Amino acid sequence: MKFFVDTADTAAIRELAATGLLDGVTTNPSLVARAGRDFFEILKEICDVVPGPVSAEVAATDFDGMLREAERLRKVADNIAIKVPLIVDGLKACKRLTDEGAMVNVTLCFSAAQALLAAKAGASFISPFIGRHDDVGQDGMALIADIRQIYDNYHFDTEILVASVRHPMHVVEAAKIGADVCTIPPDVLKKLFNHPLTEKGLEAFLADWKKTGQTIR
Ligand code: E4P
Asked: What is the domain range of residue 137?
């Protein structure tokens, strides 16, 4: 499973990229607003640090406007993935852009039917928002399982990019289902490293090693 980080905070991206475990980045207008910086400057910085796909979302909601914005965004770097919303014009733009060889991430997916349409439009990634599904009392992970089954039935190349991830078990469950990618907020990604028994075990090993009086040279 690929790990993307879901943020526009370039300091956090640098820190996580240094682990060598980061495969890409997703941003969205809310994350850019939170960062409080110029969108293009942020994208350039991210693309310099992360060679994998970096999702940049269009703000237009009409076909022509999306294509115009996509053209500007694609100039930032070769690894930009154009993010379009799952609406009719978004899928039309997806089809056109992927036909031209661009990477496209179709976002705001909340149903298996929508995911099927995105695959037919040639999307490189489909982003089902599982946390927001859970928030309204629906089963976000069941949606991932449905999409996995549908995409496997027809051998679609579209990668399932699990979005709106809230905690480590979302990542584990998505991996069990066989989702291709998880985009994870930095604080959740850091939590994946931790287990209290690892810390306790390491403490005990270090204390015992000290007792031996030896060093490894
Ligand atoms: C995905 O690409 C989105 O940026 C993101 O995962 C949305 O997450 P949220 O529901 O926590 O805002």
From this structure: 2-212
Task: State which residues of the chain have pLDDT below 70.
Answer: none
Residues belonging to the active site: 83
User: Tell me, what CATH number does 88's domain have?
Assistant: 3.20.20.70
> Which ligand 1 atom sits closest to the C-alpha of 131?
10
- pTM, full prediction: 0.96
| Pocket probe mutation, ligand 1, options 183, 187, 188, 189, max atoms within 8 Å of Cβ | 183
Q: What pLDDT score does 151 carry?
A: 98
Label each residue of 52-119 as H, E or C.
CCEEEECCCCCHHHHHHHHHHHHCCCCCEEEEEECCHHHHHHHHHHHHCCCEEEEEEECCHHHHHHHH
152 CA → ligand 1 middle, Å: 25
Number of folded domains in the chain?
Answer: 1
